[in-house]
């Protein structure tokens, strides 16, 4: 953590581009947070049908009304308000999604890198029993709650099913383990292929391009924001996981880590105290690169009008407005410039951090 | 070499099977089969003479021909509180009603009996009788607690003749339903075995025979629909990849020259800038600037030009095709240029420091010959694998570009299919894309092995 702070400090003094990018991001965040208190004349979804397709800087002399500083779109919605609120939406979606995706990627990648294919040992009987234990978990933990919520059940039912889920699967695993131990085939130790499993999972997921996967899944789930966020998390964790796994494999061979291992520390302590501080830098870089990608993807999806509802204020929706009137250049230029600048700032930041991390090695 | 290829293909099959199955099963879990919206139109239009019954009949026919009335998988695990025959109940509205009944009263058998008797009763009613009990029927379909149901059945019993009620066993089944009480039956699972008569089996065996099913929208085979669309996408991708690769290579050569400092200091930042503009913004910008009457109208805006004369020779046809494809291709090339150029540049710079380059220079070879003759061949080697990794971005780009410029290709087909929930088309496209990706991996491996003898001996 301290290390990262030093890097940021050094970069702030050495690289003007980094300083500029960071300042821009801070300003954008501040504006997006303070938006409800800013004196904007129009709301983002407010229609002004008397002044449609008004170009910016050519304000009509309508005395009674406030000006549309940056013009309006085909339904008279104010471009300025939409652009600012669009920034708010973009960050409100992509920040939590990327945070959760990074967390998942960090956990899975670190596990895979630490345990590899032949470090986590467990009995075959237990492994087989755990696989069977997934069935009651799926039934009581996923299927029944989904059914309950569709039939409008009370909280008591949900609590009951989760208790049953835990109890039944525990009992099943326990009984099956003792049973399986009697079989000669299963009464042996085996290695749990953590690394292999993660790599296969990533391979399966990345064999379909991300946009196509999201488009396909968006046809299946209802177009709501939580559903879209889950989809994005499910497709964005792979990048971080891959990076963390590679980094963990490198750290595992370093002298200080071997020393810690030979001192007999627990795996947990090894992971949290010794490996995690070294993983934070790469994860941060992956986070901001991923955030830039997410911003682009989110606006692309809302441009295509897939996976989001039409009343969601976003940059993509405003840019889509130009398809009905190609003369309205400001509908592309203003939100497009803001989107590109934000992506540029994020990429600049991560580029500099990445470079100084590499120089340190 | 052959065994290497064979092993790769064999490993690819499980991945492909897993993805296609997952998408297929997921798409079927979504409530609301294709066409149920058509059934939901209660009001018969002025011109259409179809009433609710005939619509329902044709809907059932549609489900039967497309195999959608079969169970989904070989077996199913449902809650014991739901009737076993639930998957056979159509349309979705009735299914949800039966599920609700059975859930509410905790007795699937009584719920099924009551449901059937209500349906028989409803079918036997004449127009006037229907009007009489309309309110009660509505209550039955939307009731919240048992008291409401009791009241509604009593109301129906008052209004209608007893023969009809007796014929449909309406009253006794409702009494039976009301007598049962919800317990914890829902905690018990009920497992059913459906055998090979299920949708997944049908789909998978069709897939193995090479058939991808038929489109739900127009009933044409998915392979035909895809075949019509794939040509445009293929040429769009191929030409733009070739252009982008050539351009990126030339740019990298410009930058790596000793006199290329000015290129380095201008090109690299501008490529970085270009990289941060999303593809759809870039495409819309170019569309506004170069194809709209408000600015410069150099290119036609949308589509592929449908008014082509038949007497054109191939040169004119190509000219027209290029006219429409130029702007989309420029967009794809520009969008992919930063990444490619950067990779090429890195590769060339890595080679430029090698000893044999110094030797070549020391021999007095011209800069041109050093770069083209000695550097490029070695630098290109790592780039070969890159081209296959690059495919996802290309496919995603094609989806966006085809949508914006209204090119009838696979990408636009995907968007249309997603908006219409035409699952056979979606699954077909996923299979095609995954196969394409696997093949490109294979081809790049082969090329790599061909280009580098060390790998060839290592692999076999």
UniProtKB/TrEMBL annotation, chain A:
**Record localization:** Cell membrane
Protein origin, superkingdom: Bacteria
- The primary location reported for this protein is membrane
Q: Identify its membrane topology class.
A: Multi-pass membrane protein
Q: Name one GO biological process term.
A: transmembrane transport
Q: Which UniProt keywords apply?
A: Cell membrane, Membrane, Transmembrane, Transmembrane helix, Transport
Q: Where is the ABC transmembrane type-1 domain?
A: 155-350
Fetch the PANTHER family from UniProt: D,D-DIPEPTIDE TRANSPORT SYSTEM PERMEASE PROTEIN DDPC-RELATED, OLIGOPEPTIDE TRANSPORT SYSTEM PERMEASE PROTEIN APPC
Q: Gene3D superfamilies, alphabetically?
A: MetI-like
What name is this protein filed under? Answer: Peptide/nickel transport system permease protein
Alphabetical list of CDD domains matching this protein: TM_PBP2
Q: Which SUPFAM superfamilies match?
A: MetI-like (SSF161098)
From TrEMBL, chain B:
Q: Where is the ABC transmembrane type-1 domain?
A: 230-444
Per UniProt, the keywords (alphabetical) are:
Cell membrane, Membrane, Transmembrane, Transmembrane helix, Transport
Q: Show the InterPro entries listed in the entry.
A: MetI-like, MetI-like_sf
At the top level, the lineage of the source is: Bacteria
Q: Indicate the principal place this protein occupies in or around the cell.
A: membrane
Q: Single Gene Ontology BP term?
A: transmembrane transport
Membrane-crossing residue ranges in chain numbering: 234-256, 277-298, 318-337, 379-405, 425-451
Q: Which is a Gene Ontology cellular component entry for this protein? A: plasma membrane
What residue ranges carry the coiled-coil annotation? none
**Pfam families referenced in this protein's UniProt entry, alphabetically:** BPD_transp_1 (PF00528)
The record describes its membrane topology as: Multi-pass membrane protein
List the CDD domains. Answer: TM_PBP2 (cd06261)
List where in the cell it is found: Cell membrane
Family assignment from sequence similarity = Belongs to the binding-protein-dependent transport system permease family.
In Swiss-Prot or TrEMBL terms, this protein is called: Peptide/nickel transport system permease protein
Q: Which organism is it from?
A: Pontibacter virosus
């Amino acid at each position: 953590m301290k290390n990262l702070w030093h890097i940021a400090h050094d970069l702030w003094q050495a690289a003007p581009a980094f300083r500029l990018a960071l300042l821009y991001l801070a300003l954008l965040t501040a504006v997006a947070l303070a938006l409800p208190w800013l004196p904007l004349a129009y709301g983002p979804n407010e229609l002004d049908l008397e002044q449609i397709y008004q170009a910016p800087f050519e304000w009509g002399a309508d005395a009674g009304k406030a000006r549309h500083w940056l013009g309006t779109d085909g339904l008279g919605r104010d471009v300025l308000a939409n652009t600012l609120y669009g920034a708010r939406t973009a960050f409100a979606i992509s920040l939590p999604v990327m945070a959760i995706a990074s967390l998942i990627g960090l956990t899975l990648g670190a596990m895979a890198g630490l345990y590899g294919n032949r470090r986590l040992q467990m009995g075959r009987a237990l492994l087989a029993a755990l696989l069977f234990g997934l069935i009651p978990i799926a039934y009581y933990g996923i299927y029944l709650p989904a059914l309950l919520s569709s039939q409008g059940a009370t909280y008591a039912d949900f609590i009951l099913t989760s208790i049953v889920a835990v109890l039944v699967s525990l009992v099943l695993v326990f009984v099956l383990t003792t049973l399986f131990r009697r079989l000669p085939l299963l009464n042996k130790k085996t290695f749990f292929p953590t690394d292999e499993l993660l790599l296969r999972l990533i391979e399966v997921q990345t064999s379909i391009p991300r946009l196509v996967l999201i488009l396909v899944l968006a046809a299946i789930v209802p177009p709501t924001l939580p559903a879209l966020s889950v989809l994005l998390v499910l497709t964005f964790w792979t990048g971080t996981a891959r990076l963390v796994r590679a980094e963990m494999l490198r750290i595992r061979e370093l002298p200080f880590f071997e020393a810690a291992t030979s001192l007999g520390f627990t795996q947990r302590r090894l992971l949290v105290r010794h490996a995690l501080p070294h993983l934070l830098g790469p994860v941060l870089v992956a986070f901001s690169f991923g955030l830039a990608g997410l911003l682009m993807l989110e606006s692309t999806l809302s441009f295509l009008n897939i996976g989001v509802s039409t009343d969601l204020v976003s940059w993509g929706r405003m840019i889509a407005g130009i398809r009905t009137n190609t003369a309205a250049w400001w509908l592309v230029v203003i939100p497009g410039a803001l989107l590109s600048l934000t992506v540029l700032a994020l990429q600049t930041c991560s580029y500099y951090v990445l470079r100084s991390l590499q120089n340190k090695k | 070499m052959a065994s290497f290829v064979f092993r790769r293909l064999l490993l690819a099959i499980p991945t492909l099977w897993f993805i296609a199955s997952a998408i297929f099963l997921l798409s079927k879990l979504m409530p609301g089969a294709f066409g149920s919206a058509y059934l939901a139109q209660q009001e018969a239009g002025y011109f259409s003479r179809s009433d609710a019954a005939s619509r329902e009949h044709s809907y059932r026919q549609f489900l039967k021909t497309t195999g959608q009335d079969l169970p989904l998988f070989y077996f199913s695990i449902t809650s014991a509180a739901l009737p076993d025959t639930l998957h056979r109940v159509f349309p979705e509205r009735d299914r949800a009603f039966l599920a609700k009944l059975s859930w509410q009263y905790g007795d699937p058998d009584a719920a099924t009996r009551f449901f059937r008797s209500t349906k028989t009763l409803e079918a036997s009613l004449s127009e006037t009788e229907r009007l009489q009990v309309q309110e009660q029927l509505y209550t039955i379909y939307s009731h919240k607690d048992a008291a409401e149901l009791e009241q509604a059945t009593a109301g129906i019993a008052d209004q209608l003749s007893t023969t009809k009620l007796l014929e449909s066993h309406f009253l006794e089944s409702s009494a039976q339903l009301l007598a049962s009480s919800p317990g914890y039956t829902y905690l018990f699972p009920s497992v059913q075995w459906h055998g090979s008569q299920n949708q997944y089996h049908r789909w998978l065996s069709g897939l193995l025979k090479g058939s991808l099913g038929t489109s739900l929208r127009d009933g044409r085979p998915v392979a035909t629909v895809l075949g019509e669309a794939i040509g445009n996408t293929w040429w769009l991708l191929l030409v733009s990849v070739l252009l982008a690769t050539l351009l990126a290579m030339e740019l990298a050569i410009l930058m790596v020259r000793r006199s290329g400092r000015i290129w380095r200091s201008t090109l690299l930042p501008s490529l970085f800038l270009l990289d941060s503009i999303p593809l759809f913004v870039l495409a819309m910008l170019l569309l506004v600037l170069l194809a709209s009457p408000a600015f410069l109208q150099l290119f036609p805006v949308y589509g592929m030009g449908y008014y082509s004369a038949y007497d054109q020779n191939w040169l004119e046809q190509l000219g027209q095709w290029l006219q429409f494809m130029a702007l989309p291709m420029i967009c794809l090339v520009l969008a992919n240029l930063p990444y490619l150029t950067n990779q090429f540049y890195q590769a060339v710079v890595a080679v430029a420091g090698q000893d044999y380059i110094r030797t070549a220079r020391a021999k007095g070879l011209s800069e041109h010959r050093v770069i083209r003759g000695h550097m490029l061949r070695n630098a290109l080697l790592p780039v070969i694998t890159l081209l296959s990794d690059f495919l996802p971005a290309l496919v995603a780009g094609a989806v966006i570009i085809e949508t914006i410029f209204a090119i009838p290709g696979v990408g636009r087909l995907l968007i249309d299919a997603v908006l219409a929930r035409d699952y056979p088309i979606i699954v077909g496209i996923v299979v095609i894309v995954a196969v394409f990706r696997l093949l490109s991996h294979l081809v790049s491996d082969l090329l790599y092995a061909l280009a580098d003898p060390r790998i060839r001996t290592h692999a076999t």
